[in-house]
Amino acid sequence: MREITQHAVRLMERAQTGDPAGALAEAETVLRAATGDLVDGPACMHFVRVVAHIAQSDPRGAIAAVEPMLAAAAREGSGGWQACALASRAWQRLRLGELDATEHDLDGVLHDLVAAELLAAGEADPVAAVNSRVAVAIGYYELRLYELVEPQFRSAYEMSAADCEQNGNRAMWLINLAELHLRWALELYQIDRVAEAESHTAEAERYAVRAAAEVSGADAAVWRDNALLYAACARADRHDPAGAAVDIERYRGRLRERGFASEALALSPPFHGVALKRSGHPEAALAVLADAAAELPPDADWLVAASTHRTRAVLLVHLGSADAVATLAYGDSLAAALWRQRLNTLHAARTMHDLAALRRQHEQVARAADLDPLTGIANRRAFDRAVEAAAGRLGPVAVLLVDTDKFKVINDTRGHAAGDEALRAIAGALAAQVGPCDLVARLGGDEFAALLPDVDAAGAATIAARMVQAVRDIPDCIATVSVGIALGLSTDLKCLLDRADEAMYRIKRRGGDGFHDAGHPPHARAA
């Protein structure tokens, strides 16, 4: 699986660096390889499809690609890839809502992100874990919920640093953290919370300096310039504004020369203006902001545009413009309204997260109450509840009662620890023979039972035979099992349990290590 995951990682990088159509076509070829059906194949390859549609600015295509990915991730039992799917769908819904107001669904977006965050937390596979945290971070970033973004990017960095085979340059996560704090600071400046803003530029500098020291790979020089530009921006409002102004100009020039389309290029003009003003060059600062305002594209990021125009208005007021005072006041009132909206969304997300976490805890407690602590399979309580539920619906059902042979010999000769280990192995062997709709439970001691809805006599006999053989095949275990089978309607379960018990004892009296259908001759191991 590691090989296919690394293949998917390479295709994701290909999709994000200029060839999304080629990455999409190759991923779909891999997905169809097993059965010819696109919905089959590993979840990581479905994620390539999602990423490729995102890279092509196709939110509807990305959202459509999420459904088969969720199904694949569920088959694999991968919370991480499920989280990638849900978080990607969330922020693509946001993009779609920007294009079409009828598609706006903030509650749906938050539900997906909260579910994704909880799923990501339990993922063990490093590639799925990192990608899921980054996907969640992007979703919260789109909503400006900086407090929820930071722990996701920090986790991604720590996992990438711990796994040398991780995709991407681990310093990218540090650069993302620096950018996060700079944007956070810009919003705080807009509502005149200067001290808080400066605490975030200090954090931005710390992350940016670390990133510059840790970059590696073929593009290390570009990423280092990106990191150092952010570090210079972070110094503009605190210490050394003159040096910051020089460094911002230097690193902006280098990135432009390299043709590197960095968020830093768009984000840096307000900081450049502040650095020039604080170092005694307000006219130069005004010229920088005038050029930046003129270069803003029609679809410019709202915070970049707002910060550019606000910083320019602050400079005009500083230079004596009366007209700029009213413009500044109006802009600040809008910024305050946007900040309140952000806080409302943050409160909703945190409330939703707490409720979802509490619900998950309750579900885990309920599941734990239905599990046998020694073997990890269902316990007697869960089996009795399943029998009660099955009795309430009309349909065919098979009951298997299983008793372990020679278990007392293991306890008497090798001790109870060996007996416990044997029970765990037997439970695992039995549970591995049934389908997802069937139930295997430990009733107590060395007795087990299975409830198989919609299984005929031949199917029940096949499963019983597999159970007998699977226990025989357990290494270094002398135990075998005797299996009694009874079939009938679910409404007659009490009678079926009694008949399965009689059938089990019948094979037990013949020496065990076999199975017996209550309506047929016994099947025991040949002497």
From TrEMBL:
Please list the residue ranges annotated as the GGDEF domain: 395-520
In this entry, which stretches build a coiled coil? none
Alphabetized InterPro entries for the sequence: DGC-Regulatory_Protein, GGDEF_dom, Nucleotide_cyclase, Rev_trsase/Diguanyl_cyclase
Q: Please list which residues make up the signal peptide.
A: none
Domain of life (superkingdom): Bacteria
Kindly give the NCBIfam families that the UniProt entry links to this protein: GGDEF
User: What is the official name of this protein in its record?
Assistant: GGDEF domain-containing protein
Source organism (scientific name):
Actinoplanes cyaneus
